[in-house]
DNA sequence: CATGTTCTAGAGGGTACTCTCCATATTAAT
DNA sequence: ATTAATATGGAGAGTACCCTCTAGAACATG
């Protein structure tokens, strides 16, 4: 018993992703998103409580989409070492097939106005972070890398390093080179070797 | 034969750095900088052609200040391997003593409106980038790491990896842990070992 | 002291964006 | 058909910011 929506939420978020990739988070204005899909600005405020809520949703949908495959990769393969390599590879491969979303990930939640997010979305973000931390800690334990220093080294190996590799290229506007997955895997492996 | 300035350029840039570190590049507005030092907005336009010029100057002063010590570190030590380790260490140590400037570096020139910069400042930025590329290429050659893949691996080792380590902590608002330099050096060394 | 130069001081126009509001339209269920 | 629920469509108030512009203050030099 209601008028059907002309604009799907996912359609609005797609436009927001495109804008964020092209002009940065600050380019994701309510009017820009509305104009991109041909909707009046009022319609946006039926879906999102305000700009912070929209930015949070764009960020969370992207991160959660990324993490889905990331955790699967971490658990894959034969043993923790292979899982780490696969995870590193996944970061690069996913970025290759989702260049706009990857560009978005490189900004970080803070640039998407995290400080202004509504309670519930902050919770979702925290939960994702916790899951990553837990997975990294489990990997570090399985590899015998203990202590604060070991944990941080594993984080660098399976999270920050592959992201750095992606950043280096995407920020320059170039696509990822063919050998990127290979390089990420090699470097991750080198860092996972106990020093 | 002129009235002495009440506001030094460096004083304005200092305020801009503080604002950028706290609120991001978008927080560096002309009025915010003016208000931070107690100057009228008009005075800012005597020093800088406009907002893009101010942002460019903030970025360039910071990057050039950082690079000064970075190149010295790269050339220091005994052989290329030690130079790479020292450079990695320098990134972390400099970030520790210059937390605000480091936060600024983590954003990247693009976020500081690089696309709108005046010609001359674009040139300065390019020159800095070229010097880094050349130094990294020289290091890769001395280490016997050849080809596109080797070059990129060395870049990751002595530039992106230590920056990632810094980013992980500073973006969370925490200071760098005591062992950060040590960890950076170890990881860089692991990556500089030919795979 | 007179002069020319550089700077301060701050008002205000122009622009872009966020968000509110309300009349109107569309649908499902009664 | 009526009604309740939900959406559109778009005008416009409020706000923040960039930048310009003019008047005059402060200083070194002749």
TrEMBL record, chains A, B:
Pfam families xref list: TetR_N
UniProt superkingdom: Bacteria
Stretches assigned to the HTH tetR-type domain: 6-66
InterPro entries per the UniProt record, alphabetical: Homeodomain-like_sf, HTH-type_TetR-like_transc_reg, HTH_TetR
Keywords: DNA-binding, Transcription, Transcription regulation
DNA-binding region in chain numbering: 29-48
Record's protein name: Helix-turn-helix domain-containing protein
Species: Streptomyces bugieae
